[in-house]
Amino acid sequence: THCISSAASDVYKRQLLDAFRQTMMLALSGAALTTLAAIPMAWLTIRHPSRLYRFLEGCNYITSSLPGIVVALALVTTTIHIVRPLYQTEFTVLLAYLLMFMPRALVNLRAGIAQAPVELEQVAASLGRSPLQTLMTVTIRLAAPGVATGATLGFLAIINELTATLLLAPNGTRTLATGFWALTSEIDYPAAAPYALILVLLSLPWTWFLYTQSQKMAGL
Fold this sequence. Notes:
By secondary structure, the chain is mainly alpha-helical. It is built from ten helices and no strands. It has helices at 2-47, 51-65, 68-81, 90-115, 118-126, 131-142, 144-159, 163-168, 176-185, 189-217. Helix 4 (90-115) runs antiparallel to helix 7.
């Protein structure tokens, strides 16, 4: 009996560690993707405002306002009928995160870029820097707090995301959120508790970072 209990404990620990690893991989990749994808849109809407760019920006907010189940089912339908090889792949999961959470990065990037003086971009251009070099070495460096805040919000959203991950993730994927959901569905609350605890502990430092950033921006 002791051997069986010890083996079951080892399996549970491996599952918990694997869930933590997969959560971190998806969250870090998703946060990086949403932040990078938001950079050109944020820059265009601030530096070259037009109806087209505002329309495209608005499409992001509309998509993110949809329930996760709607986004997930839309991607399931699209991948099955059009690009079957992408069905239940990490690419599709990250695409879902991009559609749902990009506005969190976009709003903060817009605020950061708006505070970066356009004159510095003009000086960099006059010194021979390409538009991309100017954007990455001047504008984004000045907007770094907004970039970090947007990436943090994306990370926090992804580690707690459930619906899209359940429907789109490859077979065998188990994140902290899906593991917690599975165990609570089985009414195994003692086994689910460590999953919830790790999610809380993961959120604490990033929540503190967001709080300190808000204090700095408020001048407190």
